[in-house]
Amino acid sequence: MPVLFVIEDEAHAEQCGEHSTLEEAVAKLRQLAGIPWSEEPNVAPCTSWRTCGRRYEIVQYETSSHPWKELRRTPVLEINAKGTFWQKEFEYQSD
Questions:
Q1: Residue 46 resides in a domain
Q2: What pLDDT does residue 94 have?
Q3: Is residue 56 within 8 Å of 10, Cβ to Cβ?
Q4: Would 54 be classed as within a structural domain?
Q5: What's the confidence (pLDDT) of residue 52?
Q6: Distances (CA, A) of 35 to 28, 54, 58, 67, 93
Q7: What whole-number distance in Å separates Cα of residue 34 and Cα of residue 58?
Q8: Which residues, 6 or more positions from 82, have their beta carbon under 8 angstroms from its beta carbon?
Q9: Which of these, 23, 28, 44, 86, is most buried using a 10 Å CB contact count?
Q10: How many domains does the chain have?
Q11: pLDDT in tens, the chain (95 residues)
């Protein structure tokens, strides 16, 4: 079964990247976590961006049919003026 992992900003219903593995999607989110909330691509696309933020999820789709079938939606990372917040199971561990 072909699958695709899509990073989505749940707060703004905006897709932010497609990846062939979960590991690739998490690696991309780790990159995003290193960018301030007030800079692209983390700055929220709304007019109230200063009090808003991004709520990134990884959505897993089965892609053999059209439209794709959503299999799982997992909240992973929130970035806003107060900081960067990982869901516990995805929390970055430095080597």
A1: yes
A2: 40
A3: yes
A4: yes
A5: 94
A6: 11, 12, 18, 33, 17
A7: 18
A8: none
A9: 44
A10: 1
A11: 899 999 999 999 999 999 999 999 999 999 999 999 999 999 999 999 999 999 999 999 999 999 999 999 999 999 999 999 999 877 654 43
3-state secondary structure of 2: coil
Q: Cα Rg for the chain, rounded, in angstroms? A: 14
SS (H, E, C) 17-52: EEECCHHHHHHHHHHHHCCCCCCCCCCCCCCCHHHC
pLDDT at 33: 95
Biggest CA–CA distance in the chain, Å, is 41
Between CA 90 and CA 22 the distance in angstroms is: 11
Q: Is 13 within a domain?
A: yes
Q: Give the Cα separation of 25 and 32 in Å (integer).
A: 11
Which residues make beta-bridge pairs with 15?
A: 8
At 25, list the tokens: 């999607």
pLDDT of residue 78: 96
